[in-house]
User: What shape does this take?
Amino acid sequence: MQQKTKGSIFIISAPSGAGKTTLCRKVMAKLGNIVPSVSYTTREPRTGEVQNVDYTFVSHTEFRKMIGKGDFVEWAEVHGNLYGTSKKRLEKLMASGVDVLLDIDTQGARQIKDSYDGGVFIFILPPSLTVLGERLKKRMSNTRERSDDIQRRLSKAEDEIKDYDMYDYVIINDELTSSLRKFEAVITAERLSSSKITMSWIKRNIFR
Ligand code: ADP
Ligand code: 5GP
Assistant: This one.
């Protein structure tokens, strides 16, 4: 029986390359009823990325226009590119009752924390900075990223990790299957929260 009456938001951050995209894709495929919030960005698409699926890729001018109109629930400059979460998209998804995954950086997470009452904050850590560097290099070989991008991301990682205590949960992404199980456990626990049901739901579904 579906116990939940309203959707939750899960805010996921990690240093670039820690495995957030991989984990988010797998957890959504496994659990169902949870969808990504597709962000807007000014960065160039990587090979295989699809418009309006991975991101909505827009120009700087378009992005700035959206900031001016107050279209973003949060936005930030990350590694020289702009990224933002559309207020309209997020509200529409939440109203439909599904859970929403926000894969955003620590600056964006902070803005959501300050402006939104609720949300489950999850931080993904790499096993070490050395392993993070190896994962970034491996990904670079499949994309148009350059080695100076990797250096930039690695030097930012240390600063981002210092924000770990803003999050409710920390998952060290060492072995993928085990990390995925932990991620699922957090989402499942949130779905079982007593705050997710109401007395009227109990009257309709249990008192019968
Ligand atoms: P992010 O979204 O955090 O930038 P990705 O999900 O793109 O990171 O992962 C970065 C690279 O590391 C990818 O090549 C991915 O396949 C790999 N990766 C992710 N998780 C693991 C893991 N647990 N063990 C080994 N490699 C991993
Ligand atoms: P990438 O370019 O590797 O896809 O993402 C780089 C960083 O931007 C990641 O840390 C990712 O979480 C973050 N990011 C993606 N979308 C958004 C967004 O809408 N807002 C913010 N603040 N960060 C985002």
